[in-house]
Amino acid sequence: MTATPATELDQPHDLVGIGIGPFNLALAALADGVPGGLAATFYEQRRSFTWHPGLLIEGATLQVPFLADLVTLADPASPWTFLSYLRARDRLFPFYFAERFHIHRAEYDDYCRWVSDSLPGLHFGHQIDAVHWNGERALFEVDFAQLDAAGEAEALGRAYTRNIALGVGTEPYVPEPLKPLVEAPTVPVIHSADYLDHRDRLLAAGHITVIGSGQSGAEVFLDLLRARPAGAERIHWLARTEAFAPMEYSKLGLEHFTPDYTRYFHALPEQTRDALVPRQWQLHKGIDTDTIAAIHDELYRRMLHGGWPDAVLTPGVSVRTAGRVATTKVELHLEHIQQGTRSRMTTDAVVLATGYRERPLERMLAGLDPYLRRDAGGRPRIDERFRLITDELVTGSVYVQNAERHTHGVGAPDLGLAAWRAASILNSLTGKEPYPLPRRTAFTSFGLERREATTIPGQALELTPLAQGL
């Protein structure tokens, strides 16, 4: 293994981004347009950009409009808009006549790859090992390993930077009762994140169980249903939620995904925020109404020639424990929450549509741990501008993307806020306003005092309460 010369010592970066998912890609795209230039570089462990490849199911669409691309809601004149991508792909007129507001998920993935292939300063195949603060130089040290095609480290390096943006994303979540099943390969028990890689194996199973009532669970169930023969579907769909419920998609409901609501949520007491997020599950964990309609239509179509389809949909059920029966089946121990009853079910394959959790940052940020300020739950405290709150000895900023739900609310993982958050970070980082942002974004006033954002060049964001008549 060789060491990469530390040529950056005399010319530290303004910004190093760790992770290249949609959110840091949005930051890189907007950083590319900062007047006067910004010395920014981004590192990603994967060999190239990919976005949920296991869930790029044929026909699946985004749950946000195409305007929620990487840059448009902050800079519609940017060369990295979705419309610019369509022009580069010679698809502007077909898209115009298609009249699609919600684009295919596979098309969004290809759009992001187009941006990542064209932007300067993106380094794939680089694993970040540690981040330290060098007080003497007033810089962050970012240690990385350059990976070969097999994922093995072939060279080590270090980058120096005044600021960092963490965009490492989330990872698939597997409930404790099912972890032993996933780790043993004899029966297919897979997370929905890997669905397409195992689709043929799942379809070959005699009986399939899907666990989870969100959008991913619904899309997997629908895809399996469409591929199974009528009358012999043999699919069971289980969910903890009390119903297979639609996502809140009313126009005023969507205002929970505005900067106005993000600011309101951040200003709430910590205990209030913690109690509020679980109650808002239908804002981000429900099912798109078109998907619900497609599932019902498919089930109804299978009744037209007599008989009910062999598909069972059961909400309000939790999996208490699970185990293997011989080497070919899985036994699920179930409990119905409202009935207070228990039962067992045997199945040949399981798809876990059990969602995602924020990736732990402890190992990567161990070198900064003495400087971090934490809340009552031991989580990093994050200010309004998405910066980790640190000891005053750290004069640089560590920004986070999609790791701040506990401080900024349900909009943290939403693609619709990607451009606004990235622009907010760049405005804060530069101390200027390369991307003027709207003072107000919602008709709803979420508190008795509506707080509007005002930016003073060279200073942190200020919030101004506005008196309102009741």
Q: Strands, helices and their partners?
A:
Layout: E1 2-3, E2 15-18, H1 22-31, E3 40-44, H2 82-88, H3 92-98, H4 105-118, E4 122-124, E5 126-134, E6 139-147, E7 153-161, E8 163-166, E9 170-172, H5 179-183, E10 189-191, H6 195-203, E11 208-211, H7 215-227, E12 235-238, H8 259-266, H9 270-279, H10 281-284, H11 289-301, E13 311-314, E14 317-325, E15 329-336, E16 341-347, E17 349-352, E18 356-358, E19 397-400, H12 405-408, H13 418-430, E20 450-454, E21 462-466
Parallel strand pairs: 1-7, 2-3, 2-8, 3-4, 8-19, 10-17, 11-12, 11-17, 12-13
Antiparallel strand pairs: 5-6, 6-7, 9-18, 14-15, 15-16, 20-21
Characterise this structure.
Helix content is 25%, strand content 23%. The protein has 470 residues and is of the alpha/beta class. It has 13 helices and 21 strands. Strand 14 and strand 15 form a beta hairpin. Helix 1 crosses helix 13 and helix 7 packs parallel to helix 11. The termini are far apart. The longest helix has 14 residues. The model has no long low-confidence stretch (mean pLDDT 92).
What's the short story on this structure?
This protein has 470 residues and is α/β, with parallel strands linked by helices.
Task: Give short descriptive properties of this protein.
470 residues; five-stranded parallel beta sheet; alpha/beta; 23% strand
**Biggest sheet, spatial arrangement of strands:** 4-3-2-8-19
The helix tally amounts to: 13
Q: How would you classify the helix and strand content by structural class?
A: alpha/beta
Gyration radius from CA atoms, angstroms: 24 Å
Shape: globular
